[in-house]
Amino acid sequence: MAKQASRFQRDIKDHWYVSYNKNGYPHVQQGFVLNPERLQEWDPFVLMADDWFKRGTFSDHPHRGFQTITYVIDGRLEHIDNAGGHSILDAGDVQYMNAGWAARHAEEAVDDDLIHTLQLWLNLPKSLKNSDTSYQDIRLEDVPTVPFEGGAVKVYAGTIADVIGPLESMVPITMSEISIGKGGTYTHRIPENHNAFLYVLSGELEFGKSKTAIKKTGAAHLTFNENGSLESELPIKANERSKVLIYSGVPINEKVAAHGPFVMNTMEEIQQAFRDFQAGKFGPPAV
């Protein structure tokens, strides 16, 4: 009988804690879970922002060349786009946007809410940067939950624990939220060729063979095997009641130029995006 190949064992490559800028009203506080200054390391991800904000922070604005995945931690998020789309998302909901060639939208707190969100920027390969703009709301009640002894995993995107998440990305990714009670353990399995990171929402957990302990507002970049084709494993243990988000994606391995609301391959393309917006090619305002 042929010996089954062993799974790649992931560990913590690097970890850090998010530092926050207190900006005042209306963008009350912001920190970077993934700092865009290190975007080459995060491929296919560009940045992740951790924001607290009031209404008036992210009114009508454009995007081109990438995707966003916005996870609502607290408060109500109102989305408006210039194609007539409108929705309100609550805690645990996610909005996916493919900016593609020309997105124009607004993301606002509802009424007097102080909203807390995580927004991940997910790159598009050059071949998809001119794709059609689209939006998808993923409601918490539509996210499959897989229980395990001592906890559960919510599968937002990709295939985790033999369950497929509802988020339909333009590139292969996984997104999961794992909740574990004190002393509980779980082994997270994702494709070994995915670049991956995690962000601890609450509690304290130990990860990988190194048993690196990470607390709330801690983030980590994971080891991976870019040329592999099998699954990988990340052992997790909760030192207290905890919750963690884990994201992964296949690296695109292209040059990245990111400036303002645009992510392209060259600065010339960035400048063209600004010219197109100023020329009205992104359509009317999102109001």
UniProtKB/TrEMBL annotation:
Needed co-factor(s): Fe cation
Protein's organism: Virgibacillus phasianinus
SUPFAM superfamilies (UniProt xref): RmlC-like cupins
Domain Pirin C-terminal intervals: 177-283
Pfam families named in the record: Pirin, Pirin_C
Keyword Cell wall biogenesis/degradation: no
Manner of cofactor binding, per the entry note: Binds 1 Fe cation per subunit.
Keyword annotations from UniProtKB, A to Z: Iron, Metal-binding
Binding locations of Fe cation: 61, 63, 105, 107
Domain Pirin N-terminal: 51-122
CDD domains in UniProt: cupin_pirin_C (cd02247)
Sequence similarity: Belongs to the pirin family.
Name of this chain's protein: Pirin
Xref: InterPro entries: Pirin, Pirin_C_dom, Pirin_N_dom, RmlC-like_jellyroll, RmlC_Cupin_sf
Signal peptide extent: none
GO terms assigned for molecular function: metal ion binding
